[in-house]
Amino acid sequence: MLDRVPVVAVLLVLAACGGESIAPPVEVTPMMTIIAGDKQDDTVGRELPAAITVQVTNAQTLAPLPGVLINWHVVSGGGSVFAGTALTDVLGMARERWTLGPIVGEQAMEARMIDSLGNPIVYARVTATAKPDVATHFDLVGPYHRVDSEYVAVDRVFPDESFFLAVIYGDRYSNITPACADGGSLDRLAWPVMSDGLQVVGSPVAGSVAGIRFQEFVYSGTGGIQRRVEVTSECVPGHTAFRVISVDYAP
Questions:
Q1: Which residues in 169-182 are b (16+ Cβ under 10 Å) and which e?
Q2: In DSSP terms, which residues pair with 30 in a beta bridge?
Q3: 45 with 175: CB under 8 angstroms?
């Protein structure tokens, strides 16, 4: 559906006759229609596949208005535009390319102008949805206790007590992401280094936020000691994360 945005602005059309007389100004109220490019979605940091295309017409006659200066400005999400300004062509059309910023979620760009009286005018607002990129790293955090269906952070654990560590995947902008490159899996975790007494229990469990996996552990041994855990993942080959767990004396 085309989005038509009327704008309170004045364009002065002057006509001369024989170089001696000038016709009185004709008041024109421009209206902008978003033709293409609104409400796209793509990955953070990427240029949207379709150009943002608008048309400016006379609100009364719907005739195209060429030569109208459009200023494009990104207002949220941290992205960028290619040109920044554009004049409408003979059909009243103007186009811009928009590269999404690093922030996941809705991002916005506005088409703006300053009218002949110096008033700022927003012609139209265009939005896009940015998705996280593929994982480039992950962190190992915790420990946690599971209380009902929630994971609650704790400072230390006790011997023979179950606890969880979380593997949190991040993209190149540190957005939490569930996407792996080359068909990898978030669930293919390996624990190459674990201190004596630590044991993995079961398989990873997905968190409430996509891109987080919780792994259960138990420590069988004496308290008053620290134990190191190291993890690798098929999702990000060559990357390793570790965590040192403080084990208290039995309560």
A1: bbbebebbbbbbee
A2: 58
A3: no
Residues 6+ apart with CB under 8 A from 147: none
Residue 102 burial (CB count, 10 A) = 18
Convert the pLDDT of each residue in 127-163 to its tens digit.
999 999 999 999 999 999 999 889 999 998 999 999 9
Contacts of residue 4, Cβ cutoff 8 Å, sequence gap at least 6: 31, 32, 33
Q: What 8-state DSSP symbol labels residue 245?
A: E
- pTM value is 0.82
Give the CA radius of gyration of the chain: 29
Q: 186-197 pLDDT, tens per residue?
A: 999 999 888 888
Burial class from Cβ neighbours inside 10 Å (0-12, 13-18, 19+) for residue 100 reads: buried
